[in-house]
Amino acid sequence: MPKIKFFNHKNILLNKNDIHAKKGESILNIALKNNIFIEHACEKSCSCSTCHCIVIKGYNSLSKKKEEEDDILDKAWGLEPNSRLSCQAKLGSKNVKIKIPLYNNHQNNK
User: Fold this and answer.
1) CA–CA separation, 87 and 98 (whole Å)
2) How confident is the model at residue 104 (pLDDT cuts 50, 70, 90)?
3) Which of 82, 102, 32, 108 is nearest to 40 (CA)?
4) How would residue 16 be classed by pLDDT, with cut points 50, 70 and 90?
5) What is the pLDDT of residues 66-87, one digit of tens each?
6) Sign (positive/negative) of CA torsion 72, 101, 110, 87?
7) The dihedral sign for the CA sequence 27, 90, 23, 12
């Protein structure tokens, strides 16, 4: 069972270390199940970029990025080469580390 670790723009999200998740589960669903709020204005339909995240570790273990996701990611603020939409990126069998960008982090600093 892979583990996922979430970071906000500066630090690891305290009390959210090494979350065990099922292979094939989206990063967004894992976050939401663990009370880590990631904005998702389009309700997981891959039509906005609000759930943008940056994969620090384990990028190649995630599901392949489709052209539709690439098109939407082009609109994301703070885009990096290892960016993904958390609603579309699904876990593989390896552990991953995810950074939640600053603009999407207001809920996580509480």
Assistant:
1) 13
2) low
3) 32
4) low
5) 999 999 999 998 899 999 999 9
6) positive
7) negative
Is residue 76 a contact partner of residue 49, using CB atoms and an 8 Å limit? yes
The CA distance from 102 to 78, in Å, is: 9
* Token pair listed for 66: 């489709």
Q: pTM, whole model, 2 decimals?
A: 0.88
Burial (CB count <10 Å: 0-12, 13-18, 19+), residue 82: middle
* DSSP code per residue over 5-34: EEE-SSSB-TT--SEE--TT-BHHHHHHHT
